[in-house]
Amino acid sequence: MAIIISGKKLAAEIQEELKIEAGILRESGCVPSLTVVLVGEDPASQIYVRAKTNAAERLGIRSQTIRLPVDTTEKELLEVLDRLNNDPALHGILVQLPLPTQIDPLRVTYSVSLDKDVDGFHPVNRGKLVAGEKSFVPCTPLAVQQMLLRSGFDPDGQHVVIVGRSMIVGTPLASMLTQKAPGANATVTVCHTGTRHLADLTRQADILIAAVGRPEAIKGNMVKDGVVVIDVGVNRVEDTSEKGYKLVGDVAFDEIAEKAKAISPVPGGVGPMTITMLLKNTIFAAKNLSRQ
Ligand code: GUN
What we know:
Blueprint: E1 3-4, H1 7-27, E2 33-39, H2 43-58, E3 62-68, H3 74-85, E4 92-95, H4 105-110, H5 123-131, H6 139-150, E5 159-163, H7 170-178, E6 187-191, H8 198-202, E7 207-210, E8 228-231, E9 235-238, E10 245-248, H9 253-257, E11 262-263, H10 270-291
Parallel strand pairs: 1-11, 2-3, 2-4, 5-6, 5-7, 7-8, 8-11
Antiparallel strand pairs: 9-10
């Protein structure tokens, strides 16, 4: 039976480390802060945003959520961001995605100050990641890397197959893991909707990262024995429970756990680690800005 890579447990460990760093910053007179901007009332986004700000508060990071109505114009949102960018008491800023259709997400990512871009979505920060320069790195790719390293599965020299090329997960993760750097140096294959013979590629993975966005899309016959699997997916699937749904990942957990050396669960896998990396980026922002 596979080892379970518990993001929940690793997140708790890292948050203890971050709490100490936040405490040191506070003692030096800098209260680290995180501002989340939420446009509209998407129920899943509301849950994610609450989880982020609650976790921040537990660590001693001051947090606020700026809630804007669903009919907010792009200009109004950019004005809010301008005010936040110029407030010296604020460090991390993020705009929760998805945004209502009248707002161009690319323009928004360009409008978060480079020094406060704790999501790492600003195109300049994305470019720095590709160039191997120090920058804010998106939280989910950081979470995946930390889960592998802290469980003893260094990607160095391994064939990592990533299924999914999103701007939030697959693409930045591929940039990260191909770097000639500690905790990276992997051979990376990125699969996507244009990939032919997907299973032929996933079966070659030493480490498989599933970021497909479809429930249980990766089946047991698509992996080799001894694979290490990180499941990034969070999908709501209807069931007969009181809530009316359950959360499942992008891999068929039971089938794959029979063959895998290690696997991360959903829930309790990547989710809590992504939030933890956001807090790490926020502390990094506060440290840098307090030195300026
Ligand atoms: N929506 C889904 N994932 C994310 C994320 O990592 N950051 C932001 N801002 N929005 C998201």
